[in-house]
Design goal:
InterPro entries: ADH-like_C (IPR013149), NAD(P)-bd_dom_sf (IPR036291). By secondary structure, the protein is α/β, with parallel strands linked by helices. The chain has 4 helices and 5 strands; from the N terminus they run E-H-E-H-E-H-E-H-E. It has 2 domains: about 70 residues, NAD(P)-binding Rossmann-like Domain (Rossmann fold, 3-Layer(aba) Sandwich); about 40 residues, no CATH class.
Length: about 110
C-alpha cells in the first residue's frame, strides 16, 4: 500500500502518518514551504517508510505556466487521454495497466 501527500504541509503529512497502516510507504510529493515536524515514534512503531520526491520547485511551475500562456510550449499534443473526475478509476487503470499507450492523462474536475 502507498499514500501520496501532494500538498506538502504539516497537517497533511501528519494525517498521512496517523492513518497509515503498519509497513506503508508515504510518498511526499508536495513541496513544503517550511520545516515540517513529524511524530517519529509513530513512524517507527508502524514501520513506515517516508520517501521524498522533488523534481521541480515553484519557480519551475511559474515558468512552465508562462511558456504555455505565451504558446511557447504546445501541451495539447502531449495529452493522450481525457477523463471526467467520476471516471478517475478508469484513468488509474489505464496508467497502471496500459502504460505504453499513455503519454499524459487529463482529469477534468469541472462539472
Amino acid at each position: 500500500d502507498l499514500i501520496y501527500d501532494c500538498v506538502g504541509i504539516e497537517e497533511t503529512i501528519s494525517q498521512a502518518i496517523q492513518i497509515a497502516r503498519k509497513g506503508i510507504r508515504i510518498m511526499v510529493i508536495g513541496v513544503p514551504e517550511e520545516r515540517i515536524k513529524v511524530d517519529l515514534s509513530l513512524i517507527q512503531d508502524r514501520e513506515l517508510e517516508i520517501v521524498g520526491s522533488l523534481m521541480y520547485v515553484r519557480e519551475d511551475f511559474k515558468a512552465a505556466i508562462d511558456f504555455i500562456q505565451k504558446e511557447k510550449l504546445k501541451v495539447k499534443p502531449l495529452v493522450t487521454h481525457h477523463f471526467k473526475l467520476k471516471d478517475v478509476d478508469k484513468a488509474f487503470h489505464l496508467i497502471t495497466e496500459e502504460k505504453k499507450e499513455v503519454l499524459k492523462v487529463l482529469i477534468d474536475v469541472s462539472d
